[in-house]
Amino acid sequence: MISDNNNQDPIIQEYDPEKAPLLRNDQPVAFRDKSLYNVVLLGISFCVLFSAFSPTQNLETTLNADLGFLSLSILYGFLSLSNFISPMVINKIGQKFSLIIGTLAYVLYIAANIKVTAPTLCIASAILGVGGAILWNAQGAFVIRCSTEKTLGLNTGIFFALFQINQVIGNLGTGVLINHGLSIFVLFIILSAVCASSIFGFLFLGNPTKVDEQGNAIIKEEKLNLKENLMSTLKLFKHKQILLLIPALFYSGISQSFFFGVFPPLAGKNYIGYIMAVFGVCDALGSVGFGKASDIFGRKPFIVLSTLFCIGGSLFAYFINTKIEHNQIGYYFICAGLLGFADAGFNTLLYALLGALYPKNGESAVAVYKFIQSIASAIAFFYGHYVELYKHIIILNSLVVPACILFIIVDKPKSKVMVEAIN
After folding, report:
1. Is residue 6 assigned to a domain?
2. Cys-Cys link to 381, which of 47, 73, 116, 224 (CB 3.0-4.6 A)?
3. Could you tell me which residue, 11 or 46, shows the higher pLDDT?
4. Structural domain tally of the chain?
């Protein structure tokens, strides 16, 4: 019931449910459907999952040498191709169940390391490639769904901060267990159980509604069929923004090989856990710091800072390994911190930028990101064991500089970005 400005009799308006907004600012939201709750729970669940997988990946090239590099190359090769089908799976079964299916693939891969044979490890790597694509595409779409333009950087940062704590828990715990004489056989049994336990977190995720800046629900379009979903993903490759971001996305994949395949073995098996724990602390702090700061000051200054961290950390790694006598272990901790901040910056800011570009097409945008990133990782892990350290660093830094420049070009004001993203 409302009145006009002349204090006449009240005008009675009939309530039309078809015109009522799905969600309003004054409408209470169930606790489990609140965005912050879901972002935090998602981050914690990923932290548990990767507390098991990260040390597995870090140990892979150390324990299994050539087979370890081959395994990771297969993993990222299948992950890249699977990004074309993962949005269809997520669209069909939903984000929550997609997260659970992806987790089961990680459990299988870790369990394959309990007693390593070439056939089982390679098959498990291929399965994890498919499952990993589903998991990460569901994660990216879920965070975008929980965010508005103003909160996307913070939510992305919160997720990656909680997620990257896995590097501390997993690597520190693994380092302690190995140095206390625990066998590799028992270690991977424990890691398999830890990975499986993350499923409980996914079961308690709510059902947040994507809203605009005013708090009104954004109505999701009708679900696309498989062909339409695939075409929706492929069409993004025609967008100018995606084409310009290819070097940044490719760098993010090459960097994963350097951070988790090339760098960890430099200090030796007994120190990997402790050094990568420092990497994880800096990655976590950098994620939430870059995420929140980018919401206030914009993304451009922090992508430049992340680039400087990458260049500095990688060159320092080479200097330690070749110029310092006896490769003093303490320097590797400093190097790990620099690389951790570099990883945090690019991960957080790339997700935030893609979320700003494609707020209603999160699954497809993340699929393109993971496709390019995984191709780069697969290539890098394939040649990783055969390339000298200085060549790795040349490749890494020859990509990070143009990646930074093109990121800055794409990161335009919101109005211009949205116009070009639609065209």
Report:
1. no
2. 73
3. 46
4. 1
